[in-house]
C-alpha cells in the first residue's frame, strides 16, 4: 500500500500534466428550463495550485514510509487529492462545490481515527457551515446569472441588488475564511492540527488551507473583479481582518506549549498576510508567491516535527530539548525552515514579504503595513521557540539522551524541500516570470522583472543571489570558527551537572532555559487581552442556546395528545381566519 | 389488466393467507416474497411507458373505479414494490434472530400496506383514495402495535387517534366536494373546482390539507410521529419512513396540482415545509434514542419534500423525486441495520454506536447518513441541489436559508453518529451479518452511490415524470377522453 501511495503521488504529477491543457465541457441540459454547463478548464492559476498539491503529496508519501497506516488512509488520501484536482480545474461553481464538499468529507474521515470526538465534531461542523454558505452564495449568484460558470459570474454579480451583493460576499468570504481559518473562524483548526496524524498535518496546513486561498482568489477575480476592488469596503475588510488574524494568531502561538499548536497558529498568521494582500489587485503576485513559500515551509516544518515526534514520542516543548547533537540533520532543516518562516533575508521568505510590503506601501495602506510588520516581528518569538525548545539547551529527560537521528524517510523530503527553498532564495526572479504568466491570464498588472536573480520594485531591488552568496560565505566562516571552539568547551556530564546552581535540582524540576518562555508576555495587557478572549465562548454560547431552544421545542413532541390536538385546532383556526376573506 | 395487478394481487394474497398457512410456516413468507418480486419486476417493465395508462374497472370513470398509471406514479409504484420486496427478503433472513409472532398475520399486513400505498398513488377518484387512506392507516396501526408491549400499544393508540381525526377532515372535504360538484372523480372535480365560490374552495382545500397534513407529517400536525416510531418495532419503522409517508405525500400533491393548478397557497406551503424541516432538526439535536432521532430526521426530510413539491416547478419536483428515492433507501438501510444492532446489543441508545463492532454495517450506514445530509456523489445531493436551484430561480432565498440552516443542524447529529461509528473505541462483540443481508444492504447503498455519481442516467426520466405530475391539463383530458 505504501508503494501504491508513492506511485499514486507521482502519478498525480502526470494527472496535473494531462489536466494542464484540459478543456472539457458538458451540458447537463436535460433540465428544460435552464441548461447547466459544467466543465474542466485548465488555467495557469489552477496549474500553480495543482502543482503544489501534487508536490506536497509526493513529499508526504516519502515521509509516510516509516508509519504503518491503514489501507483506508491511503485510499482517502487519493480521493482527497482527486477531489482537489476537480475543484482546482473546475470552470464552474458546481464542480467547485462538489470538489469542496468531497474534500471536506474525505478530510473528515482521514481525521476521524486520530481526533477526539469533540475536535472531530468541531471540524466537520465548521466544514459543513463553510460548504452550506458556499452553496447559498452560489445559488444567489445563479439566480441572476442563470449559470454556474465563472465566465458568467461577474455579470450575474452586477445584476444582483446591492444588499444581495453584500450577502453574497459575506457568505463566500465566510466559506473560504473557515477553510483558511482566519481568526474568529479558526476554532476548529488548532485542535484538528494538533490531534491529526503527524503525517496528515503537513497536508492540512500546506494544502487544504491553500484551497481556501484558491477559493478566495477565484471569488475575487471572477465574481467581484479584483481590479475594481480598491477603495471598496470589501478591500478594507479583507486587509483589516487579515492583519488582525496575523497579530492575534502570532500572540496565541507564543503562548502554546505544543509544537503542532504553535505551527497551527503560525499557519493562521501566515495566511493572514495572504488574505491582507489579496485585498489589492496588485497584491495577487505577492499572495501567490507567499502561498508557495508557505506551502513549502510548512511541509518542511511539519515533516520535521513529525520526525521528532516519531523518534521521541513527545510533542511538547517542555518535554524536549537539547536534540541538536542527536539530530544534526533535522536541526539544520528546521533552521532553514524557520529562517524562511520568519521572512528575513537571506532565504526566500523575505522575497514574498518584500512583495507584500511593497504592494501595501503603494496602496497607501500604511496602518495595515505597520500592523503587519508588527506581527511579522512578533513572530520571531514563537519561531525562536521552535528551535530552542526542541534542539537547544539541556535534554529534559534521561530517555532523550539515547535517541538517534530521524529515519531517512523523514529526511529525504526535508532535503528536497530545503533544496527547493534555497534554490528559490538564489533565484527569486525565476518565480516572478512564472507568476507573471498567471497574472497576465487574470488580466492583472504584471510584476516588474529585471533579471532572474533579483526582485525589482519601484522602490528597491532585492538581489537574492548576492545576498545568499554572501550569507553562505559568512555562514561557513562562522561554522568553522564554532567547530574549533566546540572542541575546547567542557561538556556537561548530564543535565544535573550544574556547577553554579544554588539549589539542588531533582528529577521533576524543569531545567531547560527556555521553559515557560513566552509566559511573561501575559503580563502585557494588550497581549493578555488577546490570550484571554476567544471565539470559543461565542460558539459555545450559540451551541448552548440552540440546545436549550431544542429543549423548548421538544415540548411539542412529548406525546400528550390532548395538548397536541388543541394546538392543531388552534393552527386550523388560524389558517381558516387567515385564508377566508 | 395490468396496473390493477399492483393492488389486486397483494390484496388477494392477503385474503388467501389462511389457505397458504396450511403449507407451513415458511409457505406464506416465501409465497409473499415471490409475489412481491413479481410485482417489482412488473413495475419496472412499465418504466418505458410512453403514454399514461387508464385502467377502468367495470363502469366508465365518472361513476366507476379507475386507476391511472403514468410516468410519475410508475416511479412510486416501482419504488414501493421493490422496497417492499427488499424488506421481505431481508426479513426472511432476519427471522433467524428476530421473528414476529403469528407471522401469517404479519405478512397479511405487509401486503395490505403495499396494496394501499400503491392504491393511493394510482387511484383516480377521491373516494377510493379515502378507502386506501384508511386501509393504509389500519395496516399501519396494527403494525405499530404488533409487539403488544406497553410502548407499542400506546403508540398504536396514538396513531389510531390521530389517524381517525385525519380521516374525519378528509371525509368532510369529500362530502363538501360531492355536494357541490356531484362527482368523486378527480378529473371532474379538477375541472369544476374553479367554478366554486372562493370561500368554499378555501374551506375544501383547508380540510384536505388538515386531513392529509397529519399523514404527511407536516409541522404542527406531526406530533405523533416520534412516539409511533419509538413504540413500533425497528424493522417496521423502515416501512413507515420509506413507503407510507411517501405515498401520502404523492397523493396529497397529486390532488393539490389538480385542484389548484396555479399554485395559490404555494408560498405558504413552501415556508411551512421549510419550517417543518427546521423545527424537527432542532428537536432532533437532543435526542438520545436512535429510533426517535431517525424519526425526526424523517420529519425533516419530509419537510424538505413538502417544500419542494409545493414549488409547482418541474425542476423542484424532479429534485423531490430524487430525495424521495434517496431518503427512502437511506432510511431503509438505517432502520434495517438498526434492527440488527438492536437485536444484537439490546439497545437503541445513540451511545450504542460507540460500542458496535460491525465495520461493514457501519460503512453502509455512513453512506446512508451522508446521502441524507446531501453530500455530493450521493443521491441526496442531486435532489437537494435541484430543489435549491429552482428556489434560487424563484427568488425564495428565505426558504433556502431556512433549509440550509436546517441542513447544518442535521449534520450536527448525523456527524455525531458517524463520529461514534468511525472512531477507535472499545468495541463490543462482533456483529456478523448474513451474506444475503449484506448483499441487500450493499445493493441499496450502491443505488445511492450510482444515482449520486451518474444522475444523468435517470435525470431524463425524472424530468419527464415531474412534467407529467405537474401537468394537470393532460391528466384531466386523458380521463375525460375516456368518459366520452
Tell me, rounded to a whole number, the average pLDDT of chain B: 88
Low-confidence stretches of chain B: none
The radius of gyration of chain A is 26 Å
The portion of residues assigned to helices of chain A is 55-70%
Strand content of chain B: under 5%
Description:
The complex is a heterodimer of chains A (581) and B (484). In chain A, the strands form 2 sheets. Chain A has a two-stranded antiparallel ribbon. Chain A folds into 3 domains: 1-224, no CATH class; 233-487, no CATH class; 536-579. In chain A, helix 2 packs antiparallel against helix 3, helix 6 crosses helix 9 and helix 10 packs parallel to helix 15 (366-390). In chain A, 67% of the residues lie in helices and 3% in strands. With 581 residues, chain A is mainly alpha-helical. Chain A contains 21 helices and 4 strands. Chain A has helices at residues 2-19, 44-63, 71-89, 93-112, 117-145, 150-159, 162-180, 189-195, 201-224, 233-254, 259-277, 284-312, 328-342, 349-362, 366-390, 408-426, 428-441, 464-486, 525-532, 535-553, 561-579, and strands at residues 23-27, 37-41, 454-456, 461-463. Helix content of chain B is 77%, strand content 2%. Chain B has helices at residues 3-20, 25-45, 71-94, 103-122, 126-144, 150-181, 186-193, 198-215, 225-231, 234-259, 266-284, 290-309, 314-345, 352-355, 359-373, 379-394, 397-422, 435-453, 456-470, 472-483; strands at residues 53-57, 65-69. In chain B, a hairpin with a 7-residue loop joins strand 1 (53-57) and strand 2 (65-69). The radius of gyration of chain B is 21 Å and the shape is globular.
Amino acid at each position: 500500500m505504501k508503494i501504491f501511495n508513492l506511485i499514486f503521488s507521482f502519478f498525480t504529477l502526470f494527472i496535473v500534466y494531462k489536466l494542464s491543457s484540459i478543456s472539457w465541457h458538458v451540458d447537463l441540459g436535460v433540465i428544460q428550463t435552464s441548461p447547466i454547463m459544467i466543465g474542466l478548464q485548465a488555467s495557469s492559476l489552477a496549474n500553480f495550485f495543482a502543482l503544489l498539491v501534487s508536490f506536497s503529496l509526493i513529499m508526504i508519501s516519502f515521509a509516510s514510509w516509516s508509519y504503518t497506516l491503514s489501507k483506508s488512509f491511503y485510499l482517502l488520501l487519493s480521493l482527497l487529492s482527486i477531489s482537489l484536482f476537480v475543484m482546482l480545474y473546475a470552470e464552474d461553481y458546481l464542480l467547485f462545490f462538489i470538489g469542496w464538499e468531497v474534500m471536506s468529507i474525505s478530510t473528515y474521515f482521514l481525521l476521524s481515527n486520530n481526533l477526539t470526538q469533540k475536535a472531530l465534531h468541531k471540524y466537520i461542523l465548521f466544514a459543513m457551515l463553510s460548504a452550506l454558505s458556499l452553496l447559498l452564495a452560489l445559488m444567489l449568484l445563479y439566480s441572476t446569472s442563470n449559470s454556474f460558470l465563472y465566465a458568467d459570474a461577474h455579470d450575474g454579480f452586477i445584476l444582483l441588488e446591492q444588499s444581495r451583493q453584500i450577502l453574497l460576499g459575506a457568505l463566500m468570504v465566510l466559506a473560504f475564511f473557515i477553510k483558511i481559518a482566519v481568526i474568529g473562524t479558526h476554532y476548529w483548526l488548532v485542535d484538528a492540527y494538533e490531534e491529526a496524524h503527524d503525517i496528515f498535518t503537513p497536508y492540512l496546513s500546506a494544502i487544504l488551507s491553500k484551497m481556501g486561498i484558491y477559493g478566495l482568489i477565484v471569488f475575487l477575480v471572477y465574481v467581484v473583479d479584483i481590479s475594481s476592488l480598491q477603495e471598496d469596503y470589501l478591500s478594507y475588510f479583507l486587509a483589516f481582518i487579515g492583519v488582525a488574524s496575523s497579530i492575534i494568531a502570532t500572540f496565541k502561538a507564543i503562548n502554546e506549549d505544543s509544537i503542532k499548536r504553535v505551527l497551527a497558529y503560525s499557519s493562521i498568521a501566515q495566511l493572514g498576510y495572504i488574505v491582507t494582500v489579496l485585498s489589492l489587485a496588485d497584491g495577487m503576485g505577492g499572495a501567490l508567491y507567499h502561498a508557495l513559500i508557505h506551502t513549502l515551509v510548512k511541509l518542511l516544518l511539519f515533516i520535521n516535527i513529525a520526525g521528532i515526534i516519531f523518534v521521541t514520542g513527545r510533542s511538547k516543548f517542555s518535554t524536549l530539548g537539547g536534540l541538536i547533537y542527536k539530530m544534526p540533520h533535522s536541526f539544520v532543516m528546521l533552521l532553514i525552515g524557520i529562517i524562511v518562516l520568519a521572512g528575513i533575508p537571506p532565504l526566500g521568505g523575505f522575497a514574498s514579504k518584500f512583495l507584500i510590503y511593497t504592494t501595501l506601501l503603494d496602496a497607501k495602506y500604511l496602518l495595515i503595513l505597520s500592523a503587519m510588520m508588527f506581527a511579522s516581528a512578533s513572530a520571531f518569538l514563537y519561531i525562536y521557540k521552535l528551535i530552542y525548545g526542541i534542539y537547544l539547551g539541556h535534554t529534559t529527560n534521561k530517555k532523550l539522551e539515547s535517541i538517534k537521528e530521524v529515519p531517512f524517510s523523514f529526511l529525504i523530503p526535508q532535503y528536497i524541500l530545503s533544496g527547493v527553498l534555497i534554490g528559490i532564495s538564489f533565484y527569486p526572479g525565476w518565480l516572478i516570470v512564472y507568476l507573471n504568466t498567471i497574472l497576465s491570464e487574470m488580466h492583472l498588472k504584471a510584476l516588474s522583472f529585471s533579471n532572474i536573480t533579483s526582485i525589482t520594485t519601484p522602490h528597491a531591488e532585492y538581489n537574492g543571489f548576492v545576498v545568499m552568496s554572501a550569507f553562505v560565505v559568512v555562514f561557513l566562516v562562522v561554522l568553522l570558527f564554532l567547530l574549533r571552539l566546540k572542541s575546547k568547551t567542557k561538556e556537561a556530564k548530564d543535565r544535573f551537572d550544574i556547577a553554579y546552581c544554588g539549589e539542588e535540582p531533582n528529577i521533576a524540576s524543569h531545567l531547560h532555559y527556555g521553559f515557560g518562555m513566552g509566559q511573561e508576555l501575559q503580563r502585557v495587557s494588550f497581549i493578555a487581552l488577546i490570550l484571554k478572549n476567544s471565539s470559543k465562548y461565542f460558539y459555545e454560547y450559540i451551541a448552548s442556546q440552540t440546545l436549550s431552544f431544542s429543549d423548548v421545542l421538544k415540548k411539542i413532541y412529548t406525546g400528550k395528545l390532548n395538548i397536541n390536538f388543541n394546538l392543531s385546532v388552534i393552527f386550523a383556526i388560524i389558517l381558516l381566519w387567515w385564508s377566508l376573506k | 389488466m395490468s396496473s390493477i395487478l399492483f393492488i389486486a394481487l397483494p390484496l388477494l394474497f392477503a385474503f388467501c393467507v389462511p389457505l397458504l398457512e396450511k403449507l407451513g410456516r415458511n409457505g406464506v413468507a416465501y409465497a409473499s416474497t415471490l409475489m412481491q418480486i413479481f410485482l417489482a419486476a412488473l413495475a419496472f417493465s412499465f418504466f418505458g411507458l410512453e403514454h399514461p395508462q387508464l385502467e377502468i374497472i367495470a363502469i366508465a370513470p365518472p361513476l366507476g373505479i379507475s386507476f391511472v398509471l403514468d410516468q410519475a406514479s410508475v416511479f412510486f409504484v416501482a419504488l414501493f414494490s421493490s422496497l417492499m420486496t427488499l424488506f421481505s427478503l431481508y426479513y426472511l433472513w432476519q427471522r433467524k434472530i428476530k421473528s414476529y409472532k403469528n407471522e401469517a398475520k404479519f405478512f397479511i399486513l405487509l401486503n395490505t400496506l403495499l396494496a394501499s400505498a400503491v392504491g393511493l398513488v394510482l387511484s383516480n377518484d377521491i373516494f377510493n383514495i379515502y378507502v386506501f387512506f384508511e386501509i393504509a392507516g389500519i395496516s399501519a396501526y396494527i403494525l405499530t402495535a404488533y409487539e403488544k408491549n406497553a410502548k407499542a400499544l400506546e403508540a398504536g393508540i396514538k396513531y389510531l387517534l390521530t389517524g381517525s381525526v385525519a380521516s374525519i377532515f378528509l371525509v368532510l372535504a369529500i362530502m363538501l366536494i360531492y355536494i357541490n360538484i356531484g362527482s368523486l372523480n378527480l378529473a371532474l372535480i379538477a375541472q369544476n373546482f374553479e367554478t366554486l365560490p372562493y370561500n368554499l374552495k378555501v374551506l375544501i382545500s383547508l380540510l384536505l390539507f388538515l386531513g392529509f397534513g397529519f399523514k404527511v407529517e407536516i409541522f404542527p400536525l406531526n406530533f405523533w410521529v416520534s412516539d409511533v416510531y419509538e413504540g413500533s418495532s425497528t424493522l417496521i419503522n423502515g416501512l413507515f419512513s420509506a413507503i407510507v409517508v411517501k405515498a401520502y405525500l404523492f397523493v396529497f400533491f397529486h390532488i393539490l396540482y389538480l385542484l389548484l393548478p396555479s399554485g395559490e397557497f404555494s408560498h405558504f406551503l413552501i415556508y411551512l415545509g421549510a419550517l417543518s424541516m427546521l423545527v424537527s432538526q432542532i428537536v432532533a439535536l437532543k435526542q438520545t434514542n436512535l429510533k426517535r432521532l431517525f424519526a425526526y430526521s424523517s420529519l425533516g426530510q419530509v419537510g424538505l419534500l413538502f417544500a419542494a413539491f409545493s414549488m409547482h416547478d418541474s425542476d423542484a419536483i424532479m429534485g423531490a423525486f430524487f430525495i424521495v428515492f434517496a431518503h427512502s433507501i437511506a432510511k431503509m438501510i438505517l432502520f434495517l441495520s438498526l434492527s440488527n444492532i438492536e437485536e444484537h446489543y439490546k439497545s437503541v441508545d445513540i451511545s450504542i454506536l460507540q460500542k458496535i463492532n460491525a465495520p461493514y454495517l457501519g460503512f453502509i450506514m455512513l453512506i446512508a447518513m451522508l446521502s441524507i445530509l446531501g453530500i455530493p456523489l450521493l443521491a441526496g445531493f442531486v435532489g437537494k441541489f435541484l430543489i435549491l436551484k429552482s428556489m434560487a430561480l424563484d427568488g425564495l432565498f428565505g426558504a433556502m436559508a431556512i433549509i440550509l440552516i436546517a441542513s447544518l443542524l442535521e449534520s450536527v447529529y448525523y456527524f455525531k453518529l458517524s463520529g461514534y461509528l468511525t472512531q477507535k473505541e472499545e468495541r463490543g462483540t462482533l456483529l456478523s451479518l448474513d451474506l444475503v443481508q449484506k448483499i441487500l444492504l450493499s445493493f441499496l447503498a450502491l443505488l445511492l452511490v450510482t444515482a449520486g455519481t451518474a444522475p444523468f442516467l435517470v435525470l431524463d426520466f425524472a424530468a419527464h415524470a415531474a412534467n407529467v405530475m405537474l401537468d394537470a391539463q393532460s391528466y384531466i383530458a386523458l380521463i375525460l377522453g375516456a368518459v366520452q
